[in-house]
Amino acid sequence: MSRQLIRRWSGAAAASPSVASRPLGLALGLTEPLARAISPQGGMVRRLMSLSTDPGDPALFLSLAAPADPKAFGGRQHGLIDRFASGMGFTLQEANVSAVAEAVERYCAAYVMPDRTVFASWSELRAEALHPRELPLYTPEQHAAWQFPYQPFTEQARIRWVPAVSLATGREKLVPAAIAWDSYVPQSDDEAAICFGLMTGSAAGSTLEQAMIGGLLEIVERDAFMMMWYNMASLPRLDIRDHPLARPFRELLDESRFELSIVDTTGDTGIPSSFGLLRTNDGRVSFGGSARLSMEEAVVKTLMEISQLFIGNKAQIYAEGLPSLLPHQITDYGLRLPYYEQPFAHEELAFTAASPLLRPVPPAPAVASASEAERLAYLVEALQARGLEPLCVDVTTDDVRELGLHVVKMIVPGTIQLPRSERERLIASRRIYDVPVELGWRSSPIAPSELNVSPHPFP
C-alpha cells in the first residue's frame, strides 16, 4: 500500500488530478461502523476525500482518508508515520471503504497503549515471552557501527512486552511492544530501544479473521519481495496481456506510454505473491506488490497498487526540482518514491523485470474461495510448514472496538521486514541467506556484504 500520497486540491496544475472534499453525510457506500468513525472533531478519521483521475488513467477510483494522530493525545506517542491513508477500487464505494478502513488501521497501529504492556527483561519472564533468538533484527556488525540507534535485543534487555496469541498453539505469548505498534518509541528512559516499530502486518477488518488474514498476507508479500530484493534475483515474469484480469488496467498495457512487468515473487511458503514495475516512456516509475491466496488475486491487487501510486502521486512524480538523494540519505519511507524518480536510480530497479522467463497466470486454487476460517487455517499451516509461528496482537483501541471493528498486528518472527531507514536494515534473519538457495535462486548463500545496497522502493 502506498505510504506517501500527495494532496492535489482543485486549482492545481492541469496535469495533476484534483482533490474534492466530500461532505461527511455523502461518504458513499460506507458501512455504519466506518461512517461513524469519521468526524472532524474527535473522530478516528478526520476527513474523507476523493481524487479525480486524468484522461488515460485506468478507470479506477482513488480516495484518501485522514486518520487522527495519537501524538495529539500526549504521552510518549511518536504518532502517525503517514498523514493520509488511501484506498482504490473499481467503484467509489470500494475506494471509500478501503481508505477509511486503512485510516482506522493506521490510527490503531500508531496508538501505543502502555497500560497493556509489561516492563521486564526476557530473563524475568522466560517461558511467557518470545525469546530474543526467535526475533532476528540487526547483526553484531550493525550494532557495533558508530551511533547505531538501537541496543541488542538480549535476555537481559529491559523492554515493554505486550500479549499476543499464537495461531499455531492458541496460547498467549508476550512479544516486544516495539514490534506491535508501527511507530513505537520507548515509553520510559530506562527502556531499551531495540528497533523503531515494524510497518508490516497491521490490518483492519469487520471480523477478527478478516483482519488476521490481511495482516498475514502483507507479511508474506514483504518477506518474498525483500528476499528477492536483497539477493537481486531476477524472477519469472507473468504473462497478463491477454488475461481477463488485465482488462480494467488496459491503459497500463499501452506500449506507446508504458512498459509494465509483473513478476512472480512466490517464496518458500507457496502463498502466491507478485511484484509489479511500471516504467513510463517519459522516464517515470511506479511499483506495487501483493500476496493473495490465488495468483490472479495477487496480480489484480498489484496492478491496483501500481495504479494507486501512479495516480495518487503525479504531483510528486512529475515535480520539477526534486532534491537529489543518495541511498544513505533514505531515512524514511516517504523519501523512497523521490529517490526512484531520479533517472540514475531506474537502473537499480531493472533486475526485477530482467528475467527472460514468461509464465502464464495459474488458475485459482479452491482455498481462494473458501470461508475466512478455512483461509486463515491454510495460511497458518503454510507458515508452520516452514517453521514460522504466526502471532496476533490485538491493537484495537476502545473507541474502534465500540464500532465493532478489529485491528491487529500480525507478527511472524523470522520473516524479512521492510526497513524504514537504510541504516536500519533488518538483515539478521537467516531466511535472507538460506531460502534463496532452497528455491534455486542461488547456488550458495549470499554474504551479508553482497546484499543489494539500493533502497527498497516501497514508500
Automatic annotation (TrEMBL):
It comes from the Bacteria. Gene3D superfamilies: 3.30.1330.230, 3.30.160.660, 3.30.40.250. InterPro entries: TOMM_cyclo_SagD, YcaO-like_dom. Residues 87-459 form the YcaO domain. Pfam families: YcaO (PF02624). NCBIfam families: TOMM_cyclo_SagD. This is TOMM biosynthesis cyclodehydratase (Protein C). It comes from Paenibacillus pasadenensis. The lineage of its organism: Bacteria, Bacillati, Bacillota, Bacilli, Bacillales.
